[in-house]
Design goal:
The two termini are about 35 Å apart. This protein is mainly beta. The radius of gyration is 17 Å and the shape is globular. It contains 2 helices and 13 strands. Strands 1-3-4-5-6-11-12-13 form an 8-stranded antiparallel beta barrel. The protein has one domain.
């Protein structure tokens, strides 16, 4: 029964499509979205996208980090709340790419089981800056879904605002150096109603939200 409850709480947590974080929990991957085009400030050895192959396979994780600063409480720990990711990055034309991600529940959460599949329209500059937004529709647990902000409000009880919101959806910024791919969104949430997911109940004050994706290039011959 304890294991079953743990799985339920894990799924409840990852149903938050944006997560929250305390600034001092961030790694060197974190950066302000406003300077995402200046990759040299991060000391990255960025390859020109002109040299990238038409298709790249990537593996990694999507992590969920929820922090309530007024309480000084980590609501969701990103080291424990994550999904494994298998992805393919395909060049379309110019700076336009298609990133297909399949997120999979890890064994400790009852997996492996496919949780979510998303096709992202990604822009990658010649300097390696990455930008994309959550799409209008995606597949999740056997259902085609839409309205990411509405789903976050339902699950967490939070209305979202901040630099991670753009044109009614969640916006990501990051980098790709030909080997390592990282992108994240940064938001603040104000809880205005009772959440449907128990893990987000009774949060006092605003929450800081970060949803991140950390991937690394792998050999496509070995599968995604």
């Amino acid at each position: 029964m304890k294991t079953f409850r743990s799985v339920l709480f894990f799924i409840a947590g990852i149903c938050l499509l944006a997560s929250c974080s305390k600034s001092d929990l961030f790694s060197g991957n974190d950066f302000n979205a406003s300077n995402s085009d200046d990759m040299n400030l991060k000391g990255l050895a960025v390859s020109s996208v002109k040299s990238l192959p038409d298709e790249i396979c990537l593996n990694g994780t999507s992590n969920f980090d929820v922090y309530a600063p007024k309480e000084g409480r980590v609501v969701v720990d990103p080291a424990q709340m994550y999904l494994n990711v298998e992805a393919t990055l395909t060049h379309v034309e110019g700076q336009n790419y298609l990133l297909n991600t399949t997120e999979i529940l890890p064994p400790e959460a009852g997996g492996p089981m496919v949780y979510r599949i998303i096709d992202w329209e990604v822009k990658i500059s010649e300097g390696g800056a990455v930008k994309f937004s959550w799409p209008e529709s995606w597949w999740e647990l056997g259902v085609d879904r839409g309205d990411v902000l509405g789903q976050v409000l339902d699950h967490t009880g939070c209305i979202l605002h901040g630099p991670g919101i753009n044109k009614g959806t969640i916006a990501y910024n990051g980098y790709f150096d030909g080997i390592s791919f990282y992108a994240a969104m940064h938001l603040t949430g104000e809880q205005v109603q009772e959440p449907t997911m128990p893990v987000y109940a009774e949060i006092d004050g605003p929450v800081k939200l970060v949803f991140s994706m950390t991937l690394n290039k792998v050999d496509c011959s070995e599968g995604k």
